[in-house]
Amino acid sequence: MKKIVYSPILKFLAVILFCTSMVLGVLTVTAGIEDFYKVTPNLYSFEKDFSESWYMASLLQEPERVICNAYHEYYSGVFDEQGNPLTSNFEDLDVYIHRQIKYSLNSDKINYYIQWNHMGGYVNGNVSEIRKAEFYSYLVRSGRGNVERESSLPEGRMYSWGIEEIDQYDLTSTIKIAVSVKDEVVEECRAAWERQERIVMETVFKAAIFGGIALLLLLYLVAAAGKTADGSLQNMWLDRIFLELHLLVMGVGGIGTIWLCALIIDEYQSGFFPAKLLYPALGGITALGSLVVLTSLLSVIRNIKTHTLVETSLILRLIRGIWRLVRDFLRLMIGWISKKSGVLFLVLLFLYTAAIGLLGIGTVISPVFLIFGVLLFLVAAFVLACRGKDLEEIKKGAARVKSGDLTYKIPGMKCSDLKPLAENVNTIAGGLDQAVAAQVKAERMKSELITNVSHDLKTPITSIISYTKLLSDMADLPEEARDYVAVIGKKSDRLKKLTQDLFDISKAQSGNEEVALERLNLVLLLQQALGEHDSDLQSSGLTFCVNVPKEAYISADGRKISRVLDNLISNILKYSLKNTRVFLTVTEKEGEVELECKNISAYPLDFDVEEITQRFVRGDESRTTEGNGLGLAIAKSYTELCGGSFHVVTDGDMFKAILRFATQS
Questions:
Q1: Is the confidence at residue 121, as pLDDT, over 60?
Q2: Which of 10, 82, 344, 566 stands 20 to 30 A from 428 (CA)?
Q3: Is the distance from CB of 158 to CB of 137 less than 8 angstroms?
């Protein structure tokens, strides 16, 4: 099931369907907007019912709006010294308002009755008939400035157009305004409103369907993001892009897509965009924008799932770094304050800061405080200088001890709180000196023991070998006894070699081995070593690939380097996988001669390369092969005695021994 759910093909189809749903949703909304504005007049404004129509309210309030505007236009807004408003017009107010009503009201849409108590009214209908209409408004402003309104529209739907504000011009007149919308206008508007409502509801329903499909596909893509067919998490190359760039792409892509679509629709409605290109342009822009935003979003989701979001964000990394600095600083401060010396320093710092502050304030009163402030600063500077000197002595002593001078002692401290630290460093140095001396003594005694035991074993082993040879030369020795003698001889030879190897490695590691350096051709020594093992090489089943120059000169002891090469070749013959190739390479580069011996091991190389060159350590932990674990140790010791370096490198089953010497011209 996981293979199907997280398959790349299903994810790709989900992306295509997501973009398609977004495109269809945008095109559906565009078609709805286009149909909406084809209906005239434009009335629908998401009211629950036509009886709450804002357009009906605006028609009913039109006379009130005209009267208020006429008042404001007639007067200048400036008052004389007695507080009377000054007019900006040279005609009578009655004449001006009558003219505004005559030329500004939509007489073809409304019936109205307007009257002042001190002037004639302007009538286009009967008040009683007006108040029986489906949509009507009846307003009375008494001479006291109170406004009473009666309307067929719900409460709060009729807004004040400032009829109360004319109190500053007229406080005594009673104003009556009755307005109704003509029946034929109401029916025309009702039909347009219902048509627009139906278009909006259908458009919203269809867009919601496409939006729901897109949301479901998005949820699937978010859940499946970063998961492979087996359910494991895996990032893509795109996820290495900085988080901030992804967020910028999502913001610019989303806002840019909406802005471009709105711009195209606006230009189309203004007649500046071809109708044939409207839907292709909107579909292409929406598809591209959806794909870009979705790609960046899924990349961020993958980084969240794989816990790599912080690593891909410059800001988050900066915040994490600042947080770590603050955390470490707080821990340091808490740890410092928790110590006795920390509390002392904090108290002294507070007292010093307070004293400097008070002396600074006192300086304004008298210059004498400035002198005390300078003296206090000099005292603090002297104390800090003493502490700084003591700290430098402690740092110097720690550095000397680190470099190996364990006999160095830090001199006396002037600051009492730093004396324990200096004494502890001196104690550590003394303890290390004793420990090192004890270890050196133990190593020397161990080496001397091995050397002496090896030397003492030589005589009895030689006797055993000699008597074994005499026994094997006897003609009347039984066949069974002769087999026993052969085994004794073989084991005696092995014991003799082990004893000699122990003696050699002990002398080399104790520094008692004499070295006679001379100019040698390493290539010639290698060829001689291969020649000495020619019969073993032929019967080993190994293919030796030797790649060497004609000559490569080094400064070394010939006997010891020959022993090194002999041990390396013996090691290869013992531990290499049969029917494999062995590579012996000599190269000269950067003033060094390098010998590299590579072979495929017959045993798993699960040892530490640093330990394999120690005494009695073998790669074959079962110890089923011949060998005593001293071959590589002797090779390393002799190489280093001759001024070279010896390294072991493993790569899978590949075993490499690398020798380097300085080139001799």
A1: no
A2: 344
A3: yes
Q: What is the 3-state secondary structure (H, E, C) of 30-75?
A: HHHHHHHHHCCCCCCCCCCCHHHCHHHHHHHCHHHHHHHHHHHHHE
Within 8 A by CB and 6+ apart from 506, the residues are 447, 448, 450, 451, 454
Please name the residues in contact with 100: beta carbons below 8 A apart, sequence gap of 6 or more: 66, 67, 69, 70, 73
Residues facing 660 on adjacent strands: 594, 645
502 in Cβ contact with 450 (< 8 Å): yes
φ/ψ of 200, rounded to 5, equals: -65, -45
Mean pLDDT of the chain: 80
Given a cut of 60, is residue 120 above it in pLDDT?
no
Which amino acid makes up residue 62?
Answer: E
d(CA 112, CA 125): 6
Q: What is the CA 351 to chain-centroid distance, rounded?
A: 45
Q: Quick check: 632 pLDDT over 60?
A: yes
Q: Give the least confident one: 119-133, 382-396, 525-539, 554-568.
A: 119-133
How close are the terminal C-alpha atoms of the chain, in Å?
71
- Is there a contact between 222 and 301 (Cβ–Cβ < 8 Å)? yes
Q: What angle do CA 57, 59, 60 make, to 5 degrees?
A: 65
**Beta partners for residue 645, in sequence order:** 660
The closest alpha carbon to 575, from 542, 538, 609, 527, belongs to 542
Calculate ∠ Cα 659-661-665, nearest 5°: 145
Distance CA 208, CA 257 (A): 19
Residue type, 620: D
Residues 125-134 pLDDT 10s: 677 888 888 8
Q: Where are the alpha helices (DSSP H) in 237-367?
A: 243-269, 278-305, 314-337, 340-365
Task: Give per-residue pLDDT as tens, 536-550.
Answer: 888 888 999 999 898
Neighbours of 248 (CB within 10 A): 12
User: Nearest CA to 176 among 230, 101, 122?
Assistant: 122
576 secondary structure, DSSP code: B
Q: How far is CA 552 from the centre of its chain?
A: 52
How far is residue 20's CA from residue 258's CA, in Å, rounded to a whole number?
A: 16
CB 482 within 8 A of CB 465: no
If you write DSSP's letter for every residue of 268-283 in order, what string do you get? HHTT-S-GGGHHHHHH
**Which strand (E) or helix (H) includes residue 546?**
strand 543-547
Q: For 66, phi and psi rounded to 5 degrees?
A: -65, -40
Q: What is the rounded CA–CA span in Å between residue 538 and residue 621?
A: 27
Q: What count of other Cβ atoms lies within 10 Å of the Cβ of residue 212?
A: 12
Virtual CA dihedral for 369, 375, 377, 378, nearest 10 degrees? 170
SS3 state at 86: strand
CA distance 595 to 586: 5
Alpha helices in 61-132 (DSSP H): 62-74, 93-104, 127-130
pLDDT digits (tens, 9 = 90+) for 384-408: 777 777 778 778 878 877 777 767 7
Nearest alpha carbon to residue 634 among 452, 503, 512: 503
Q: How far apart are CA 507 and CA 509, in angstroms?
A: 6
pLDDT at res. 615: 43
d(CA 537, CA 544): 8
